[in-house]
Structure to design on (167 residues):
């Protein structure tokens, strides 16, 4: 009887320990997914995944992408026109020097993060360059486009103009 009681006690302690470890593991995974953020050219951290509570425009660019050089000034203008829209440029160059070159040559004030470990690109899986995604307040992609020309520029501007952004 005593050995049975002691086994029950050790089993329940073991289950409690396992439950605690599981809770810690779940909390760790949740905190990692909620802290999906990268630093921009000024060292400021920007969240790029999950519910952010605001509309976010994410644009994938690179210094080797000729259409990106034409699209980024338009995004800069769009960001100024809609200050409640968070605009984040994700640079996918192999080195941070590519990002810095884009920022310097185009005199970008938009936040531009370097996707060093391809975490953002893996998450959104852009199929071409530039690739633009608009994410709603809950973290769902509600618009995407590939490439840059007058048609894609106008479509993005029209889409953004219809968002319920508080001006």
């Amino acid at each position: 009887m005593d050995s049975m009681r002691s086994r029950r006690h050790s089993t329940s302690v073991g289950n409690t320990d396992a439950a605690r470890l599981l809770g810690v593991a779940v909390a760790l995974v949740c905190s990692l997914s909620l802290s999906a953020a990268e630093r921009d050219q000024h060292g400021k951290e920007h969240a790029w995944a999950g519910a952010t509570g605001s509309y976010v425009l994410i644009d994938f660019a690179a210094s080797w992408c000729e259409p990106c050089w034409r699209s980024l000034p338009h995004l800069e203008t769009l960001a100024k026109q809609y200050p409640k829209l968070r605009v984040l440029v994700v640079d996918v160059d192999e080195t941070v020097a590519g990002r810095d070159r884009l920022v310097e040559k185009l005199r970008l004030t938009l936040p531009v993060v370097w996707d060093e470990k391809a975490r953002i690109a893996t998450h959104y899986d852009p199929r071409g360059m530039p690739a633009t995604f608009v994410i709603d307040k809950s973290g769902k992609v509600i618009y995407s486009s590939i490439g840059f020309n007058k048609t894609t520029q106008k479509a993005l501007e029209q889409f953004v103009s219809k968002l319920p952004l508080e001006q």
